[in-house]
Amino acid sequence: MDARSLKIAAAEEALSHVEHGMRLGIGTGSTADEFVRLLAEKVADGFAVQGVPTSERTARLCLELGVPLFSLDDLPELDLTIDGADEIDPQLCLIKGGGGAHLREKIVAAASERMIVIADETKLVDVLGAFPLPIEVMPFGLAATRRAVDKLAERLGLNGTILQRQRQGKDEPYITDGGHFLLDASFGRIPEAEALAEGLAAIPGVVEHGLFLNMADAAIIAAPAGVRTLTAKI
Ligand SMILES: O=C[C@H](O)[C@H](O)[C@H](O)COP(=O)(O)O
């Protein structure tokens, strides 16, 4: 089974949790894109859903495929969000933001009664941190914010490099949908994710980080042997 087939398998299973008429947060990334494609087929058959996209990219795909969209201001309370992830630990804590969308993704997930993550099994980890943690920051005061992140990492005993994300193939900064910059922090392991999340949230120039702690209710994981659903072990 190739990587795309696994994403489709997870997305298919997620679709079975979407009920007619639901207010639905729609995630970002290659796995979420597969979900949008499957959802669009159901919508074309008369299935009603009110979608709230988590990025301009997802909004474009939904519009192209005919999935009805609303803003989060139209629908400030959502029934369910389906989204991908870059890493998933045994408690279903996540790293997200590989596609730079974690700010809107977190706002949408927080407005949802439930969040279901879809991924292939390569995203499962024992401890978060092998995937570089995306940190969305204000362009103003970038150097000071970066220094504050460095100091926090040092205080928490986290070693690694922190790089500013660049636009793919270009020598210019990546700009998020919110008009901010991104730092990618490669720590290797983040044993105290809560302390890091709290510390990052306390830095004024940090807009949002990609740690999603205690937000996901379930993760649908696709592997060549089949699809399974994990729930948080608290
Ligand atoms: O910013 C992007 C999102 O957090 C994605 O959901 C995450 O990067 C996973 O993307 P993919 O499904 O392409 O691996």
Please, could you describe this protein's structure?
- It catalyses: aldehydo-D-ribose 5-phosphate = D-ribulose 5-phosphate.
- The protein is an alpha/beta fold and 234 residues long.
- The protein folds into two domains: 3-124 and 213-224, 3-Layer(aba) Sandwich (Rossmann fold); 133-208, ACT domain (Alpha-Beta Plaits, 2-Layer Sandwich).
- 30% of the residues lie in helices and 26% in strands.
- It contains six helices and 13 strands.
- It has helices spanning 3-15, 30-44, 56-65, 102-110, 142-155, 193-201, and strands spanning 22-26, 49-53, 78-83, 87-88, 94-95, 112-120, 133-137, 161-164, 181-186, 206-209, 211-212, 218-223, 226-231.
- The protein has a six-stranded mixed β-sheet with strand order 2-1-3-6-12-13. Strands 8-9-7-10 form a four-stranded antiparallel β-sheet, covered by helices on one side.
- Strand 12 and strand 13 form a beta hairpin.
- Helix 2 packs parallel to helix 3 (56-65).
- Bound molecules: ribose-5-phosphate.
- Ribose-5-phosphate is lined by residues 27-32, 83-86, 96-102, 105.
- Ribose-5-phosphate binds next to helix 2 and helix 4.
Question: Main traits of this protein?
Answer:
about 230 residues, alpha/beta, Rossmann fold, Alpha-Beta Plaits, 2 domains, 6-stranded mixed beta sheet, 4-stranded antiparallel beta sheet, 6 helices, 13 strands, about 30% helix, binds ribose-5-phosphate, EC 5.3.1.6, ribose-5-phosphate isomerase activity, Ribose-5-phosphate isomerase A
